[in-house]
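Technical annex, item 7. During the second reporting period the consortium partners agreed on a shared format for inverse folding records so that results from different sites could be compared directly. Each record opens with the tokenized structure and is followed by the designed sequence. A conforming record, contributed by the partner at site C, is shown below for reference.
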């Protein structure tokens, strides 16, 4: 009898943990987890949430990145070609804006998708 009771408790605990993990995974995963990683000269200088509307000064203001409604767009740059400003805004995992003269890379990453990519690649 005692053994059976313990088994039931164990099952309840496992189910609770599973539900919790599922809930947290859903909370952190999906679209809400998308972030942009900013790299200057190959080094990560910051990661920013795409959910939050914000303007980011990269590399002491050489490039200005704007995040609005889940889309990141390079709105200003002091580079001569301005190719990064002309590049289309990014919002999907794996998309990036690159400023070659300033060695700035803005990359969209989602934790869940990058795991998937790792498996596929
Ligand atoms: Zn540029």
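Designed sequence (site C submission):
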């Amino acid at each position: 009898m005692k053994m059976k009771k313990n088994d039931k408790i164990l099952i309840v605990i496992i189910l609770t943990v599973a539900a919790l993990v599922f809930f947290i995974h859903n909370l952190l995963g999906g679209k809400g987890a998308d972030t942009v990683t900013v790299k200057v000269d190959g080094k990560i200088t910051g990661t920013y949430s795409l959910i939050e509307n914000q303007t980011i000064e990269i590399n002491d203001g050489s490039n200005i990145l704007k995040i609005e409604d889940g889309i990141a767009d390079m709105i200003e740059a002091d580079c001569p070609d301005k190719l990064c400003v002309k590049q289309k805004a990014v919002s999907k995992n794996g998309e990036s804006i690159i400023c070659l003269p300033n060695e700035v890379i803005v990359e969209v990453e989602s934790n869940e998708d990058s795991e998937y990519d790792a498996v596929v690649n």
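The first strand starts at residue 35 and ends at 40. The pocket of zinc ion is lined by residues 77, 79, 82-84, 99, 101-102 (CB under 6 Å). All partners now use this format for quarterly exchanges.
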